[in-house]
DNA sequence: GTTAGCATGTAAGGAGTTACATGATTTT
DNA sequence: AAAATCATGTAACTCCTTACATGCTAAC
């Protein structure tokens, strides 16, 4: 998760750890909260693996700032992470959301797969919860019922949201199964 | 988290591990997914700590089922977990949601504190995200904007939901600061 | 009689947090 | 010159998952 999000943000522009943490919080909100205790070790690990590099070979700059740049190897890793549209991605909210945040780097076909995969999962989930609610309703107190009902409503809301995005994708002319030859709007 | 949810479910009725896992999935959906690899060790740990006990002193029943009962000591622990209305509870979605599921065991005053605490957190969160969106908007692609917008909408939705529940609490006559002398409706 | 579901457990490992430790720079 | 904020890092620990290992019982 952190690997993905760090590589994704570094692809936009080189940044140092402190800056990354701020950006993470600003852009991703709830699921962008990572502590330095995981962020800094992640950066050094990615550097050791050759996925990122320090821009100013340690010490050239006034203030001690380790600015990291993504390498071609790192971009490849990022691509692989972004093209994964398996169940572990569509079934886990945060995993899906982070992929969505980087949709501009994702193939149109994979985008569609992810959106529909998530939609399908939510549909199944909604059904399962609606069923559970029906079965448990009279054995449960009002608070628990309210909580389950809220979960169902939320799933429905998300399904409509995904439908809107799927339609927008289609409008942009990329619903095909073959790798679309049309270039993406903005790089 | 698991401790709380296990004790909470066992307070309703004695259950064995397998049963608990099913119930967890049925009632809590997304945040009720725990593996046996954490559930069973949790049960044995709670048993060692004296918070739960096995009902049929191992071997009395046909099929090997370890049915656990919550003890008075366990109920005390559960109470303490449920009466905690600090920031760690109101700022973390799952922590809050699980408490809400067990509101029938929570003091009316704590319920109000939790609902308002969560509401306040979401309000701050919404504001922060709306601000970030304003600042980052023109530097971001449509997908990222959409994701942030969705996060804000969701927060607003949740705030309205909390408002409804706060009003329901007030209607039930428990908005006072002093420990309400009125007994709770259903045990 | 064999497949599916019920039922429990353990060992190794992953992915993060908390708490601690340090020091530079900017603001008041 | 003190306080706030910028900036990086490590060690211990928490909490959970995955993968493995086992055996019973119901249904087909």
Please describe what this structure looks like.
The structure is a homodimer of 187-residue chains. With 187 residues, chain A is mainly alpha-helical. Chain A contains eight helices and three strands, in the order αβααββααααα. In chain A, strands 1-3-2 form a three-stranded antiparallel β-sheet. In chain A, helix 7 runs antiparallel to helix 8. At the A-B interface, helix 6, helix 7 and helix 8 of A face helix 6, helix 7 and helix 8 of B. The first copy, chain A, binds a DNA duplex (28 and 28 nucleotides) through helix 2 and helix 3.
Could you write a compact summary of the structure shown?
By secondary structure, the first copy, chain A, is mainly α. The first copy, chain A, has eight helices and three strands; from the N terminus they run αβααββααααα. The two termini of chain A are 24 Å apart.
Name the descriptors.
3 strands, elongated, mainly alpha, Arc Repressor Mutant, subunit A, 5% strand, DNA-binding, three-stranded antiparallel beta sheet, 187 residues, homodimer
CATH level 4 superfamily of the largest domain in chain A: Winged helix-like DNA-binding domain superfamily/Winged helix DNA-binding domain
Task: Count up the domains of chain A.
Answer: 2
**H/E series of chain A:** HEHHEEHHHHH
Number of E-state strands of chain A: 3
Uncertain parts of chain A: 179-187
Radius of gyration of chain A: 20 Å
Relative helix content of chain A? 55-70%
The most extensive interface between chains reads: A-B, 31 and 30 residues
What's the oligomerization state?
A: homodimer
**Spatial gap, N to C terminus of chain A:** 24 Å
What is the CATH fold-level name of the largest domain in chain A? Arc Repressor Mutant, subunit A
Name the CATH architecture of the largest domain in chain A. Answer: Orthogonal Bundle
Q: Output the CATH class name of the largest domain in chain A.
A: Mainly Alpha
Q: Per DSSP, what share of the residues of chain A sits in E-state strands of 2 or more residues?
A: under 5%
């Amino acid at each position: 998760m952190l690997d993905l999000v760090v590589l994704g943000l570094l692809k936009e522009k080189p940044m140092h750890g402190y800056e990354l943490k701020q950006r993470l919080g600003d852009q991703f909100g709830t699921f962008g909260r990572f502590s330095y205790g995981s962020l800094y070790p992640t950066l050094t690990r990615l550097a050791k693996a050759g996925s990122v590099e320090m821009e100013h070979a340690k010490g050239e700059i006034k203030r001690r700032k380790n600015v990291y740049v993504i390498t071609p190897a790192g971009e490849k890793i990022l691509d692989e992470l972004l093209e994964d549209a398996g169940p572990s991605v569509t079934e886990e909210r945060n995993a899906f959301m982070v992929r969505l945040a980087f949709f501009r780097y994702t193939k149109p076909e994979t985008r569609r797969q992810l959106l529909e995969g998530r939609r399908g999962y939510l549909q199944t989930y909604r059904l399962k919860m609606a069923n559970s609610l029906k079965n448990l309703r009279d054995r449960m107190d009002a608070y628990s019922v309210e909580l389950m009902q809220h979960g169902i409503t939320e799933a429905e809301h998300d399904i409509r949201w995904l439908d809107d995005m799927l339609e927008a994708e289609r409008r942009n002319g990329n619903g095909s199964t073959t790798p679309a030859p049309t270039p993406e709007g903005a790089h």
